[in-house]
Protein 1
Amino acid sequence: MDKLEKRSRTSFGPPAGKKTAVFVDDINMPGVEEYGAQPPIELLRLFLDKKGLFERADWVWKDVVESTIIACAAPPSGGRADITKRMSRRFNMLCLPKSSSETLKVIFSSILKGFLNTGFPDKVKNLEDAAISSTIDIFAKIQE
């Protein structure tokens, strides 16, 4: 609420001419309760469904306008749960397959080349391939 401006008595939104995006990482991390509920996700669903939140301190409903929620989640396992259908229906889902090491090399190379071409000496530029290979190796070990 600190980032939003008061529009009317119960309406809040971003500064004029702007929109607010709230990014929620690992949305499927909250544990599932005995009856299948995930209270943090239910609060986000309430925000998406009703376009606002209830302020318990003031006992008043606060509408939030010109805002959206962007979320990401890893596949369910190891402490991550499935997101309920009531919540997932509110999102456009993008599922990304695992990238091969060659694909990662192309991605990392294009990013690192652009960065190194901003004025680094040749000694540092020559470390590009080693830095990329070691990054991909470390990433593969972490995935294991």
Protein 2
Amino acid sequence: MITPRQQHSRDYFELILMNQISTCVALVGLIMLLASSGYSQSSEANPKHFKTDTLSFDYPSEWTLSDASVDELQYLIMTSADKTAQMAVVTQRDPGISCASELRSKNVTKAFVDQLASQIHAKVPLQTSLVPIKVGANEIQATQFHGERDGKPVTAFVIGVIINKWFVNLVLVKPVGDDASLTAWSLVRSSLYVAEPVLTAPSKIVHNGGVLNGKAIKLAQPPYPQDARYRRAGGIVVIDVEIDEMGNVTLACVRSGHPLLRDVSLDAARQSKFSPTKIDGQPIRVIGVIQYNFVSQ
């Protein structure tokens, strides 16, 4: 059973992201309100180039770029010359354990979809479809949905992907039938580069905690499920965990192990308690693993 404290800690990262996303998407909405009728132009000739230490991409020369970044969320918005189409590139470093990254990325992408659906007055309940779109050399499933702006139909695309330990979201909102904006978005996607994050010292998270069983003040032991016993399921279950400054398990997910033994091991890991880890006298968070060995009987 997950305690309210544990649930709060697990949700904190996603909550911060959702608040930042809400702020940034609201800025996109303000840009949309400035849209006027006209035609949309885009060209790959002489593209502009955006670059930071961790992010770079090309975009059409006639599009304008604005920076709506907040805190640790990098948010770049590009607007077509006639202001009828918008693109966005968003990056946020994933600070947590790897096996939880996919779920976090899906939650962040869903937030983009929900916010944009509201901005373009999409029908409720929202009807979406998945469209295969390339990001670099990789094919990704983009979420597509429809709405309207100034009484005119628009189409939105949202992509969520993890690149080099960054959550990356790519967004396009364009008038229906505007193929030029698709070409512009293709330019951004094909040129996108996201570098490995550089950790500053001292890091708030220790990534090399290793096996943490021996550091537990209380290592909760999972029961041997009756079904697993009947099927003679056994072996080692490995649980990735994040330990906060107080020694509490704030995040846990299964890395490997028999399917019948995973849930009980996950529950036990969440109930365990560890000695706080300190660097230079300062308590820090630790990432490591807990291992449970089940002997089939």
Protein 3
Amino acid sequence: MLIGQPDGPYRLTLSVSPPQPRPQEPASLTYRVTETKTGQPVPDLQILHERALHTFIVSRDFRSFTHIHHEDFAPLTAQDLATATFHFPYTFPRAGDYLLASEFTHKDRSWVKQFTVSVGDRPLPLEVSVDLSRHKTFGQYRATLSTSPNPPLANYDAELVLHLTYQDDTPVTDLGLYLGTEVHMAAWRIDGTNFGHQHTYTPEMAAMMNAMRDHTTNPSHMAQMMVQLMRGPAKQVYRGPDVPVHHFFPTPGTYKVFFECAPGGKPLVTDFMINVEEYTEGTETAVRSIVTPSVSPYASP
């Protein structure tokens, strides 16, 4: 049994069967959420973006990525919820180490616990290929990533905008909702640290951020408001071709960023690498507050 990190008031455990999974052979992953002090299950986890527990699985070389849930395979039962137990199958594509980040929410606060799972009995040498291209092709789609500031600066708000077209440069204008939002973003620094998970940055989110900047809302209340917003009915704001996300990269370095969206209602994963710089007095990139206006320039009419 593996124990998710970091420690905290909640403990997330992971049991993998078989304990030493092999590539291309199905494995079973079972999670359980308990209170650290009492060891008792947490029976009233909140549903955010249509799921109780979101799990992101990436190979240590960042060549494979999955966003997966119990409910993708079977409905949650009353027993599952009462015992805060979630399980699903997964087939690791290749030998090597995999990073798993799982997110759950309780009492209007989200928590992330992380694991490393080794697959196969012969560890492969780690080779992370760095590709900083901002224009890439994924099947029938072309994707462009722009950031502001460019490059992003560690510990400053960065706006990332995903721009999607078809191969003939026709803009994508039929984005659907994917798990309650137009886009999910998952990011890791390529040394395997600094996992982050974000969603579409909407005008409602911008208003909350502005309230915090104006000191009219304290950070803990804002976090609760964000959770309540994500628990509510999904609202379509963006239909393409542009979708904005905001993120704080905590440290400088190269990050791998995955975007999940659904043009035409069909899931699509795009990925990029981003260099994040440390702000210094001599940094040429201007640091500014990035505020989405009440009517977003990316929103569909």
